[in-house]
Amino acid sequence: MSLSEDLKQDLIQNLREHINGSVVITDFAPLSGGSINDAYEVKTSAGSFFLKTNAADRHPSMFAAEADGLERLNATKSVRTPMVFGHGETDDTTWLLLEFIGDGERTPSFWHHFGKGLAQLHSNSHAQFGLERNNYIGSLEQINTQEKEWSTFFIQQRLEPLVKLARDKKRVEAGMAFRFERLYGKLNDLFPKEAPALLHGDLWHGNFMCDPESKPVLIDPAVYYGHREMDIAMLHLFGSVDPDLIEGYTAEKPLEKEWEKRTELCNLYPLLVHVNLFGGHYVQEVEKALGRWV
After folding, report:
1. Do 76 and 206 reside in the same domain of the chain?
2. Using one digit for the tens of pLDDT, what is the confidence trace for 140-194?
3. Where are the alpha helices (DSSP H) in the chain?
4. Out of 202, 211, 220, 242, which one is annotated catalytic?
5. Count of H helices and E strands in the chain?
6. Are 54 and 161 within one domain?
7. Is 231 a catalytic residue?
8. Domain ranges, residue 181
9. Least CB-packed of 54, 59, 175, 289 within 10 Å?
10. How far apart are CA 121 and CA 79, in angstroms?
């Protein structure tokens, strides 16, 4: 893709709202790593910026939701997020313009700082679980209708919709849906009662990075107010977690007993996301996790 003149002008206009003086785009290079959107480094007279684009008829509200999530996280002053410089639609292309953050070295203190910052993020609360708007997790719409009880929210806004979607796609059999029904009756007693916590919402290892000062940076959020163990669990989903992260977290905000056992329970949600997006062995992963509880 090349930058159209209209898109260049829209990017420059958004940058001028944040930067004093004129801005000129000097270079434009594609970046690897994204599976849903295209990504680019936009070099300008005011420095480099990170641009994400997609066709306007695909997930038209995704970048607005991502910008909202990043700004909510940034407002907590807990863990760094890229600054949002703007988002919009130009020439049948939706786009999101962010601060460009280079990669740094993960020093021994990185994980402790990350755990401490994550605990500070989770200290931001709300009267209800959910959010006043929907957003996305991956390319799936994430429904955030607010509920007073975590178990109700987890069932009605997380598990049930994705089990139904998987059944409609013929990714799972009726027997699995029946097992989820059995699980729903137990959930209220399985989770410790806690106030809603502001979550990143999609905190696997690909959605955080290390900046040049060796500090953690959160990217690609799917924010909502939920049970804080959801973020902790997802860190464990596709890889191990450095013990210093948990130490830094619990020094700031201790976790309840048996939180490690509940990681599989929490991760039923992201696993169902993967079942719906990819199918395959993720169905067996869901079956295995369900087997711990029903």
Report:
1. no
2. 999 999 999 999 999 999 999 999 999 999 999 999 999 999 999 999 999 999 9
3. 5-16, 62-75, 108-122, 150-153, 160-168, 174-184, 187-190, 229-235, 243-252, 263-266, 268-278, 282-290
4. 202
5. 12, 11
6. no
7. no
8. 108-290
9. 175
10. 7
